[in-house]
Amino acid sequence: MIHPRAKALRLTELACCRAGLAGLCLWLAGCTPPPQLDAALSRQALGADYPVLLPTADFAATPEATTSLTAQGAALEARAAALRARADTLRAQPL
Known about the structure:
By secondary structure, the chain is mostly helical. It has four helices and no strands. The protein has one domain (about 5-90). It has helices spanning about 5-30, 40-45, 55-60, 65-90. Helix 1 (about 5-30) crosses helix 2 (about 40-45) and helix 1 (about 5-30) packs antiparallel against helix 4 (about 65-90). It is elongated and about 50 Å long. Mean pLDDT is about 60; it is low at about 30-40 and about 50-55.
């Protein structure tokens, strides 16, 4: 059985990941300024081994930036899907 605190932590990680992905999508769409992600929150939400890289203003206007951000967005979506699946598994287990 999963300890309730572990379950709560996983759900918190999921919420952080969703918030980060939503902020990145809004930024890419030009709706908001670049998201300011705290490094500790990023590590908690996405895993310590997963780097969160946001481009500088000079880099953001290049074709390389588009490719890089597309790859980062896909990786974030994959990680968010994995966290959603894990959260669903945790929710399905009895307390």
